[in-house]
Design brief:
- 2 copies of one chain form a homodimer.
- By secondary structure, chain A is an all-alpha fold.
- Chain A contains 9 helices and no strands.
- In chain A, helix 5 crosses helix 9.
- The first copy, chain A, is globular.
- The C terminus of chain A is likely disordered.
- At the A-B interface, helix 8 and helix 9 of A face helix 8 and helix 9 of B.
Amino acid sequence: MDRAKRTRRSVAERRRQLLRIGLEVFSNTPYDAVSIDDIAEAAGISKGLLYHYWSGKREFYAAVVEEAVRDLIAVTEPDPDLLPEQRLRHSLRAYLDYVDQHRRGYLTVMHGGVGADPQIRAVVERMRQTVLDRIVDGLGIPAPPPTLVVGLRGWIGFVEGAVVSWLRGQHVTREELVEMSVRALGGVLTLLADHPVGEQEE
Amino acid sequence: MDRAKRTRRSVAERRRQLLRIGLEVFSNTPYDAVSIDDIAEAAGISKGLLYHYWSGKREFYAAVVEEAVRDLIAVTEPDPDLLPEQRLRHSLRAYLDYVDQHRRGYLTVMHGGVGADPQIRAVVERMRQTVLDRIVDGLGIPAPPPTLVVGLRGWIGFVEGAVVSWLRGQHVTREELVEMSVRALGGVLTLLADHPVGEQEE
């Protein structure tokens, strides 16, 4: 490997390492209470180096959320060896475990002031679109009808709403959350079964 | 009626009338594109009078959203003469019709920058709590178990997610939206039927 390549790699690694530290910090401390100094201190680097990669706290935060969404997309990757319902449960469990470990971050992204930032919203939308595409793929439907798209968008809202309520202190187990999410999706899909793909109605 | 009472009433009426105009304006124009001058002009009053009631645009906007939520709570009032499922459909139809008439406003509150304002979030939360309380009342459950609360919070997220997708252009009919919302709730409630109220599990 030549020197330039090695340098590029170490820059990418350095950047990623700082994002991991940011994820840790933002998962435990409210956004407004975190300063660039805190991040630099937690990382054992100078504030200047952080500003070298990101223009400010909001920019850094958006990169941290992107990193978290990449994680979430990776850990919830459907396991092709499982049957559809088990595959869904498996991904939901991974989703809930990840969220559980990053509670405050999740609530901020979903409901906090900075969560309304257009860049953050775009990242969250990408996550939702990935979930939707995976379910549509799993159902083996090449062109999902609008009813299915709306139903799945609704279902994603279901999971998010239930998770927020859980994170805010409702005592339900992870398995109960998985179960109710599976059943809510089942309810939506019965509608599709009644109106086979391709049928039009007004 | 004495003079003081009449004055108080007309102040309240005036205020309400301005909120109705604001609701009209914000339902058709993005928040950022609306100025206090536009509102004053639409109402045929001076900017000074608007500032007499509200300190600025954001304050006025929050009051408009509160007014809209009062409307929504009123139009979706459950009809005690209907059977439970019909009652739900009836309220859902009223909800969707109202939202359809105030599309832009709904999207702003749910996803726009100003939608993250703590005062707006509190108003939206009050709406969600009202919906939750009504469903719990309808089920005749005095102390809803956490599973039900989380499931209903999820269901409210379902309706919001589906509605946003519909408003963004997915071609589904109002009745399809009603139907999938009813079925999603049915899916959640089957969970409760399996675990009767009062039973504890860990």
